[in-house]
Structure formats: C-alpha cells, structure tokens
Amino acid sequence: MARFGAGVSRADFWIFVVLLVLAIGGSAVSQAEEAGGRYYWSVLVLVYAAASIGRSWFQAKGQGGPVWDMIRTQVFHWFGTLVAIQIVLFFESDGITDRAPAAVFSLLLLALSTFLAGVHFNWTFLLLGCILAATAIGLGIADQISIYLVTIPLALLALFIVYRRKFG
Question: Which residues cross the membrane (predicted)?
Fold first, then answer.
C-alpha cells in the first residue's frame, strides 16, 4: 500500500513530469496520426510500467520490503493494461470504433491503471492517474484545441502540488 504522507523525491518529481508530458503527447499523437498512435500507446504503457516498477523496487529495497512479490504484482498489473489497450486498438484497426474514441479509451485505461498503481505502490501515480482521467474527460467532451485549456492548468496544478511536497 502506498504511503500517502510520504515526501516526494526529486526522482519522483521528474518521473511525474516526464510521464505527464508523454501522456499528453500521446493524446495529441492519437488525434493527429492516421493510425491513432497505436505504437505510441503500447510503448507508453511499457514506459509507465518501467517507471512504476523501478520506483517501487527502489522504495521497497530501501525499506527492506518484499521486492519480488511487488514486481510480480506490478508486472501483472501493467500487462493487463497493455492487453486492454491492445483490444481497444484492435477495435480501432478493425473499424469497430473510430480513432478519437479509441484514443480516449486508451488514455482512460492508462489513467485507471496509473491511479491504481498510485493506490498500491507510489502515491504520485495516483495524482497522475487523476490528471490523465481529467484529460480523457476533456478529450471526450471538448474540441481538440480546447482540451489544452483544461489539461495544461491541471498539469500545472499537479506539478505545483508535487513540487510543494518536495521543496516546500
């Protein structure tokens, strides 16, 4: 279980920033690319998994916790996410759904998995999952340009919260 009162390390802060930028970029790629950013979402899940497993491994090792049980749990967690996103992308490629909804569904799946990783492993992922979910909602109901009017302020607010926990 994640410790919600725990401080944020510099590594946590920068991982948070990079993952947030990559997810927002994935939303843009999915909207712009004809193939819907199929490979981008697959790689992004692997990047998120590596970041989550890496940070959790480092924390568990430092606290003397059961490292291999945590890694096994995380691998199953992120593998499930990858499979779910592949199903959505299959629906897109088969014409069952369009590109825009597939991008929103993929982002929403990533948001849920990131949120749950935050609940169980590292609380900064919980905050990141909430921002990704808000971005998915914005993509679902807003024009492509106006999504950034929602996402950018939320991202800045999240960065402020994480920064204050680390340095303030």
Answer: 38-54, 75-93, 99-116, 147-163
Contact 86, 42 (CB under 8 A): yes
Q: CB count, 10 Å around CB of 65?
A: 12
Using alpha carbons, list the distances in angstroms from residue 121 to 51, 63, 127, 155: 11, 13, 12, 21
Q: How do the domains of the chain map onto residue ranges?
A: 10-167
pTM over 0.70: yes
| Predicted confidence (pLDDT) per residue in 19-28, tens digit | 988 888 877 7
Q: What are phi and psi of 122, to 5 degrees?
A: -145, 115
